[in-house]
Amino acid sequence: MVTITFPSGEKKAFQKGTSAHDIAVSISVGLGQNALSARFNHHTIELSQPIENDGTIEFFTWNDPEGKKAFWHSSAHILAQVLREFYPNCKLTIGPPVEQGFYYDVAFNGKAPSESDFEAIEQRFLEHASKKHPFVMRRVSKEMALDYYQKENNPYKIELVEGLDDENITFCDHADFTDLCRGGHIPHTGYIKSVKLLNISGAFWRANQSNVQLTRIYGISFPKQKYLKEYLQMIQEAKKRDHRVLGKQLGLFTFSTKVGSGLPLWLPDGAALRQRLEDFMREAQKKAGYDFVITPHIGHKELYVTSGHFEKYSADNFGTIKTPDQTEEFLLKSMNCPHHCEIYNAQQWSYKDLPVRYSEFGTVYRYEQSGELHGLTRVRGFTQDDAHIFCTPQQLNKEFKDVIDLVLYVFESLSFKDFTAQVSLRDPNTPEKYLGDEKQWEKAQNAIIKATQEKGLDYTIEIGEAAFYGPKLDFMVKDTLQRKWQLGTIQVDYNLPERFDLTYKGKDDQLHRPIMIHRAPFGSLERFVAILIEHTAGEFPLWLTPHQVGILCVGENHQKYAQKVAKSLEKSDIRTRIDMRNQTVGKKIREAEISKIPYMLILGDKEIQTNTVAVRKHRQGDLGSMSLDQFVGVLNLQIESEVSSFENNNLNQ
User: What is the CA radius of gyration of the chain?
Assistant: First the structure.
């Protein structure tokens, strides 16, 4: 017998060799029908896998991210199967699940598919799915795997196999199709009831621009047809909210090929929006005891050698910067933390001085491949609301929880109400990816889990998602379209204090290492603004929006009164924009609606005579005439309501 522990803590004995699926059925018939994947002792397994040892088990359905991951991973296998049938000479490479769906990268020798071929591929896909072919994993030797792909003349799979250990190579079979795979599938193809191929793009083999360019085909699948219909409706709404379109429409930012790909230029209204976000964060951090610092955009190569970024992060860096002095080499700053370590090192510290909290809106530069750039969400130059806390081991728990409160304060202030926490840990199977020793990592990981539990956060654990210098707590936020974004991160780091020889004098008069907390509630301002645009459809809270009021003159003889009204509003800290163009009021109103200006003041003869303003609200229409004082009261009441909703949040600062 084996003892199985469930997430609730309940334990139950089963005959050794009982499959994960049969264990699910023993809980309930419904779970047996709906379970798509399972995790045993924190490792993904097949539902058909026999359980041979004691351990903990979790089951995932379509409602869980892990369930969708298995569903879409399995769908990628079927897509590969169909592509091989339609294009026998193609060479398959990799096909993983992604946040929404899956893709497969393929080398087509000859004609590649186009979007006009999608319907035929989808139809054949569903024909295969309906036959309920089981996904079956089998272990093979390295020799067998190499022989299989040498016969197929597939250099991509051969390269993958050559990088694997002999005892860790598995194939997945379904129907008459076989693929190199680590596992994590739904029980059989029949669970898939609908599929949609989304687009085709280019992708370099192994994300290396020096390698051959492959064809990447994206798709998405669902267990019910109605889910596909809902998804396509969401896609249409997402197009309306695309931050690249709205950013241009609202005059927030632009790009220039002369400046360079992935380097955004903030226009006046976008810069004003961004500045208010910075002011908001500065005020919150000031209350929380942070000191503000400024560091250069470049650093000596030796700085990043010391931090480990040159070794572990070199693929994401721009090339070295040469100077006339041949002994000097600099790098564009990819992280702010090495600079902050050197600021800490500029003086001696006592335990009485700690914690020390350094905050900076620091611009960093990372090389993203041109094909990966996407508006403000994937750029090459961006500004982080970065901070680093240097504290004693005794202070770590409180400091970490205080940062959690700050992140939640940001979410509350901008109406991001649906989120989960993800504890991102080190993968013990790939120690070469990380700095530091295992004991330090264990301490850091346990500290994060403890603080997360004490704050009562709903969290998941992801192995292998840690930063190279430490584990982290990432916040996964859903926007109004239920799309998930990673916003806000907190990391515990024992390694950089060691590498930079950071110290403080303890009560025992001896030198000790501080612990370092990295944190960025916004993440990057560029990406945060992009997500905020799409979350709000460009209709920002009144306290944040670039123009709170648009003043529309009926005619030229009303401009003087409009300027008087604008000056009066500006004295009340209300942001205005006057439209004095020689256009009809109807056209001005339509354009103000498109610009999503919250309030419009229509000024004509009547308003001048009565010393009033005719008020119109975005998407609601006319509110009638009122005195300027009355209108200011309306705006202030709305702003106070918005601000109090998040200022009353329980922020421990």
Answer: 29
Residue with tokens 């790009």: 255
Q: What is the average pLDDT across 269-282?
A: 95
- Point out the catalytic residue in the list 384, 395, 445, 548: 384
Q: Is 384 a catalytic residue?
A: yes
Marked catalytic residue, from 73, 84, 309, 366 = 366
Residue pointed to by tokens 């192994």:
206
Contact (Cβ atoms closer than 8 angstroms) between residue 308 and residue 468: yes
Helix 396-413 vs helix 628-647: angle between axes, to the nearest 10 degrees?
A: 150
Which residue among the candidates 388, 426, 547, 596 is catalytic per the annotation?
A: 388
Query: What is the identity of the amino acid at 522?
Result: F
Q: What are the tokens at 182?
A: 């680590």
Quick: pLDDT tens for 490-516. Answer: 999 999 999 999 999 999 999 999 999
Given 337, 341, 391, 553, the catalytic residue: 337
pLDDT at 652 over 50: no
To the query of whether residue 386 is one of the catalytic residues in this protein, the response is yes
- 605-638: pLDDT as tens digits: 999 999 999 999 999 999 999 999 999 999 999 9
Residue 157 has which token pair? 């799979």
Beta-carbon contacts of 529 under 8 Å, excluding residues fewer than 6 positions away, are: 243, 252, 253, 270, 273, 274, 277, 376
HSE at residue 261, side-chain half, CA atoms within 13 A, is: 9
* Annotated catalytic residue, options 157, 518, 596, 616: 518
End-to-end CA distance of the chain: 52
User: How far is 58 from 48, CA to CA, in rounded Å?
Assistant: 14
Write the pLDDT tens digit of every residue in 481-495: 888 888 889 999 999
Q: In whole angstroms, what is the distance from residue 359 CA to residue 619 CA? A: 39
Catalytic annotation present for 479: no
Judge if pTM exceeds 0.85: no
Averaged pLDDT, 240-264: 95
Sheet holding 576-579, edge to edge: 576-579, 549-553, 599-603, 612-617, 621-627
Cβ neighbors of 607 (< 8 A, separation 6 or more) are 558, 561, 613, 614, 625
157: pLDDT strictly greater than 50? yes
Q: Which of 269, 386, 479, 493 is catalytic?
A: 386
* pLDDT higher than threshold 70 for residue 645: no
- C-alpha 19/C-alpha 250 separation (Å) is 56
Compute the CA torsion angle 459, 461, 466, 470 (nearest 10 deg).
Answer: 70
Q: Specify whether 150 is catalytic.
A: no
Is 181 one of the catalytic residues? no
Contact in structure between 497 and 514 (CB atoms under 8 Å): yes
CA torsion 292-296-300-304 (nearest 10°) is 50
